[in-house]
Amino acid sequence: MEPIVTVQNAVTAFEDFMEPTSAELDAIEREMPVILADVDLLDAHIATIDRTPTELDTRRIRRARRRALAARVALLNSTAGTSLPGGAA
Question: 62: number of CA atoms within 13 Å, CB side?
């Protein structure tokens, strides 16, 4: 029987390098409205998992879907003029 050895040293060896950069944090901040809208949409769907959706549930899902799409459009429109690094010329 072979002993089970922890690999924590190998996993945490690059711990100092694993912090997000300022650019990554800025990107998350820009995408936060989309993330929150998706969470609202997911909540609306989860509420109806174990039952038949009522008319109110259907409206809630429809509104959440519209907000999620609007947040995506707003994000795309705000980043349309900026060029992303590594993209095609």
Answer: 7
Distance in angstroms (rounded) separating the CA atoms of residues 66 and 57? 14
Average pLDDT value for residue range 22-30:
93
Distance CA 25, CA 83 (A): 18
Mean pLDDT, the chain, whole residue set: 85
pLDDT band at 16 (very low <50, low <70, confident <90, very high): low
From its phi and psi, is residue 41 left (phi > 0), alpha (psi between -120 and 50) or beta? alpha
Q: Residue 28 and residue 35: Cα distance in Å, rounded?
A: 9
**Helix segments in the chain, DSSP class H:** 8-11, 22-46, 55-79
Please give the pLDDT value at position 80: 79
